[in-house]
Amino acid sequence: MSRQVFAYAHNQVERLHEFLLAGARLTPEKAAVVELAGHEAGAVSYRQLERRVEEYVTVIGDLGLDMGDRVVLESDTSASAIAALLACSSLGLPFVPVSPETPAQRLLSIIAGVRPALYLQAADGRRDGIPETVGTGRFGPAGITVERAPAPRRRHRRESVAADPAYMVFTSGTTGTPKGVVMSHRGILAFYRGMLRHGIVSPESRVASTAPLQFDFSLLDIGLALGSGATVVPVPRALLRWPRRFLAFLAETEATQVDGAPSIWRGALRHEPERLAGLGEQIRGVLFSGEPFPPHELRRLQELLPAARIVNCFGSTESVAASFTDVPRPLPAEQRQLSIGFAHPGAEMMLLDDDLAPVDGPGVTGQIYLRSSALFTGYWNDPAATARALVPDPLAPGTGQLVFRTGDLAHRGEGGELYFDGRADSQVKIRGNRVELGEVERRVAEFDGVASASAVVLPRPDADPVLVVFVVLDRDVEGIDEMELGAFCMQYLPDYMTPQEIRVVEDLPVNANGKVDRGALLDSLS
Predict the structure, then answer these.
(1) pLDDT tens digits, one per residue of 433-459
(2) What is the domain range of residue 93?
(3) What is the pTM of this model?
(4) CATH number at residue 408
(5) Looking at residue 93, which CATH number applies to its domain?
(6) 8-14 long-range contacts, Cβ below 8 Å, gap at least 24?
């Protein structure tokens, strides 16, 4: 089945489940998902996936939820998790994916914020303590088991429309609490259509997805695969720590495309280069996102995977991604920075200066403003933050059109292509995950004895960056137990947001504007 046939089918639909289940009509017996079942890989066809969705729809539909009610889905990526989110889409219920690794306090904060009607976890999940106001259940290949029915609700809606929320992804927030990014059916489908026009995979591809379900990158992988009539191959999270097992899984599942943060390759490049080279004819594509790919590692990956098309994916959760740029092969020896290119079809990355005037010449840094049909609706229950991010188009303010002020800084190359220059705020990426340093600082400052805190990320050329927090203690406090502080943070923050180093200082340096000078703190580490 050709890409053109799928593209035609996709143009006839308006909602997420219709888009991703097109394969059930066009190639019903083809594998939609290949995943580990016990110790062996098993396939779920498009027809089987559709039937599982229908079974889930029957059970959830009988609970009397109203369109727009939120459903929290706690799971790693799997055929059943995909079926659960598609069932929610079918019923007009925005889903909120979370990871089984999410700290309990963070999950409770999310639940308190979104007020879901229903919480569903994978059949083998171990989560308890869900508030009694929320219905609970489990899902798996055998169906959905409702453990506690949702409270009775009054239905007001009858028709689901493309502008309705499809899902909500929570990211780190500047206020110290997770921030919910709301994406509509229309927005995510606009993104998928733009992404698929790059022809990154074919219907014959098997797309290995390494991102947790709670991150938008996993939804990118699912859309890339199912939207192309290809196959999703969820990589068990535990395997990423063991390069030999990771590569063995890729070989066993016959993965042809591998997506993830650059760090997923580091162990294999260092410790298993021969085994990685053994997959050189099998792996035809690599897509990475979330953080810069060290050039020397990227060149080595090109050597070991000579047939792979390597694509640099750039963007934010608020639009899933903004651009897909092929990495030159071979990567020139003198090249130190990868281009993020141009926006995907259907979008435009504008570069503006502080006065909101266009930056056209090469080498001049400006901020990226994204014009796109694939933008998020807003931040959940935070109109002020939404208004700061979705702003009137500076180049055509009278139209009422909104664009996304990304906070990403960039400059143009000689051909007009963009190069990423960092952030205009305190947002960073750690192991491919978005982190607002302000959230880390606020959690640390809540620890007894801490008067103030400032976080920085120390980059390392051959390893993951280190999250370092500088703390000033209360006057009557002589010292601090770093292990206790770490344990305190882990109650609220995911592991990638937990400080790896604590430095006690007498004062935090400030710049001319009276703000903490993070550059000076970084300099003190060198």
Answers:
(1) 888 888 898 889 899 999 889 999 888
(2) 3-158+177-182
(3) 0.89
(4) 2.30.38.10
(5) 3.40.50.980
(6) 10/189, 10/192, 10/193, 10/196, 10/227, 11/193, 13/189, 14/161, 14/162, 14/185, 14/186, 14/189
